[in-house]
Amino acid sequence: MNIQIQSLDFTAKEELKNFVTKKVTELSHFNNSILNGEVKLKLDKNNVGENKICEIMLSLTGNDLFAKKQCSTFEEATQQTIDALRKQIEKLKA
User: Fold this and answer.
1) Rounded CA gap, 66 and 56, in Å?
2) Burial tier of 61 (Cβ tally within 10 Å: 0-12, 13-18, 19+)
3) What pairs with residue 58 in β-bridges?
4) CA-based end-to-end distance of the chain
5) Alpha-carbon Rg of the chain, whole angstroms?
6) Residues 6/39, Cβ–Cβ less than 8 Å
7) Pick from 22, 29, 34, 76: most CB atoms within 10 A?
8) Residue 77 · residue 52 · CB < 8 Å
9) Are the C-beta atoms of 57 and 69 separated by less than 8 Å?
10) What is the pLDDT of residues 9-41, one digit of tens each?
11) What are the pLDDT digits (tens) for 56-85?
């Protein structure tokens, strides 16, 4: 699976990129037809507390899945986004 990570309006540290890559790669355990993933990490300048946004678009054979979450840390936002995508993948199997 090919994973692209974009950090908008800030420079993401390597450890954050590694965390995101690991979490997105784990989704392939639930569906092996995932072709690639596009991750966007953003800062919401209008919100003080929960201002970290994670958007993930997954391209699967025949489908595209998308999830977006906003939290106080990028790690938390990424985990919640991954959880939402896992639910979408499980619905596709059913």
Assistant:
1) 6
2) exposed
3) 37, 65
4) 23
5) 13
6) yes
7) 34
8) yes
9) no
10) 899 999 999 999 999 999 999 888 899 999 999
11) 999 998 889 999 999 999 999 999 999 999
- How many CB atoms within 10 Å of residue 65? 21
What is the predicted pLDDT for the residue at 94?
66
Sheet containing 2-7: give its strands across. Answer: 2-7, 34-43, 52-60, 63-71
* Amino acid letter for position 40: K
* Residue located via tokens 């989704």: 27
Q: Which residue has the tokens 């979408």?
A: 88
Query: Which residue is it, tokens 């025949």?
Result: 62
The reported pTM is 0.92
Exposure b/e, 28-56, CB count within 10 A at least 16 = b: eeebeebeebbbebbeeeeeeeebbbbbb
